[in-house]
Design a protein that fits this description.
The chain is mainly beta. 2% of the residues lie in helices and 63% in strands.
Length: 247
Amino acid sequence: GLTYRLNSKQSLFTGFSTSFETPTLSELSADPTGTGGFNEELEAQKARNFELGFKSKNESQFFEAVVFYIETDDDLVPYELADFPDRTFYRNAGSTKRKGLELSYINNLSNNLRLSAAYTYSHFRYDSYEIPSGNFEGNDLPGIPDHKANASLLYRDNGFIIRLEGNYIGDLYANDSNSTEVNGYAMMNLNLGYKTQIGNLGLSPFLGINNLTDTKYNDNIRVNAFGARYYEAAPGINIFGGLRLRL
């Protein structure tokens, strides 16, 4: 890695790295042959990562922009089989190319109010990947949206804490063939809290409201699920609360 300071508040940085990820025990123990034992055909996933970025920071603001490029071999890809319903197996894809952009911004608007925002663009594609059921070269990696963003406002004053958060998840595909597209969604959450002290006892009541706009979306997508059972629906508007005690 290398960092170059343009001045006391701004800098450029770049980096290159290699990495590998071995299959976990649960991934290895899912043997699609049904004979038991480990799936001996699984290989470790390998990657080569390059990034280039810019960073700026002063007394009240922070901004960072990073572009990245990643090449991988033998990606671990989940899938399901008709003979083993609701069980996930894994295989290696040939290779992928992943390009993207990450932006993050923080602004302390006042002593009590803070704005945070982030955006990620992901252009992830199979470079080579062929199995008996199809050739997926050039397809999007399933389960990963091209666009993802979030922003939040945090207010603190005299023990009160208020956070309003918005999230956006773009469209994505549910399977390697890209035949099923899952629509994106936007949602908002609100969190309220208060901190006070009574003698040696600290009290922090809190209240949260998730999915303020009652958006219909999927909490999880089961990638390459058998029988098109990709979707796990998320709850609509929901409320939680509690009390934290500190001694």
